[in-house]
Amino acid sequence: MIHASSNIDPHGSDTIIRSVPSPVPSSLLAWWFQCGKTEAQQEQQQQDPLGPTGCLEVIYGIALHYLHETLDHIALVLLAYSVLCVVLYRVMFHRATGGSRFGRWLVRRSHLPPCSRALLVTAHPDDEVMFFGPTILELRRRQCRVFVLCLSEGNHDRKGAVRRQELWDACESMGVRPEDITLVNATHLQDDPTAEWRAVTIANQLLRQLESLDAELLITFDKEGISGHPNHSAIYYATASLCLSGMIPNNCKVLTLETVNLCRKYLSIFDLPATLLLSTNWVILSWKARRAVQNAMRLHNSQMVWFRKLYIIFSRYMVINSLREINKSDVEFEILDT
Fold first, then answer.
1. What is the mean pLDDT of residues 16-29?
2. 155 within a domain of the structure (yes/no)
3. Contact 217, 255 (CB under 8 A)
4. Which of 80, 124, 214, 270 could anchor a disulfide with 154, C-beta 3.0 to 4.6 Å?
């Protein structure tokens, strides 16, 4: 920087033109970089221009600063969301008397069609509690009689007899009568991810049960099958074929359990806001009822490998079920989309 001095030169010149170091760096990057340096480092910086290495250091420092700020904001958002979920869950099971219409809606822990007889269709022993436990407990709390149709005995690991007894024990622990459980042991419906379950065969089983039980509600998997198991999806397509052909009784509604993404699947009660906002039918259990579902799942002792132990702790399906009512138009759209 050029600086003009007002001192008088004793040899006759009016001003002395001299160069002095600039106290402000020539660029914003350099200024940002100097803010974090000591005086000695700043002196060295003034003597040596900012080189490629210095520029990289500056860019790294700025990126680190913004990263810290972003992580702080994310942490605050997650904390606020967690507090919201806990408060909402507590309010939902708070025994409030009276209150506004909004308040009564807010504390509503389930939204299911009224029925006195419901048929639950699963593929394997343990599906009824691993995925549908909250729905079974809620229906039994309403004094609805729940019938369970399991289409295979789960003999993939040669434990069919053991899993059969585990199915009965788990269902009884959730209030399902032993005489209301039907287990199909057919050669063409074996527990095998590679085996193709024909929709016609499953549809015949469903129709026979619906007609004999006079069920008002049919509950099963959606087309994704929660875990992606092809046997689960096959039940949906069999149910869809009955809807398309108009063979479902007029007084019977069909609900499918919604498959959620992997993140939501293991959020437990922290999936509560998303469920209430995105679902039309849902069941949310109290913490005590959640333990009842977990205990029922533990009765499937032959399936208690390490990852299922983690599943019963973190899975939303131990405490939350969100279901969607399907009709002929919905099925036509989904099948065309597939």
1. 48
2. yes
3. yes
4. 124
H or E, element range at 184: none
- SS3 label, residue 186: coil
Q: Using N-to-C axis directions, what is the helix angle for 52-92 and 28-35, rounded to 10°?
A: 70
pLDDT digits (tens, 9 = 90+) for 70-124: 888 999 999 999 999 999 898 888 754 444 454 455 557 888 999 999 999 999 9
DSSP 276-325: HHH-SEEEE--HHHHHHHHHHHHT-GGG--HHHHHHHHH-GGGTEEEEEE
Has this prediction a pTM greater than 0.85? Answer: no
Does 195 fall in a domain? yes
* Helices and strands in the chain: count of H runs, count of E runs: 15, 10
d(CA 77, CA 100): 29
pLDDT at 216: 95
| Residue 150 placed within a domain | yes
Phi, psi of 167 (to 5 degrees): -60, -45
Query: 123 is in which domain, residue-wise?
Result: 114-337
For residue range 207-243, list pLDDT tens digits in order: 999 989 999 999 999 999 999 999 999 999 999 999 9
Contact 30, 50 (CB under 8 A): yes
Segment holding 261, helix H or strand E = none
Q: What is the dihedral of CA 288, 257, 199, 239, to 10 degrees?
A: 110
Question: Of 168, 165, 153, whose CA–CA distance to 123 is shortest?
Answer: 153
CATH code: domain of residue 274: 3.40.50.10320
Residue 298 located in a structural domain: yes
Beta-carbon contacts of 190 under 8 Å, excluding residues fewer than 6 positions away, are 152, 155, 156
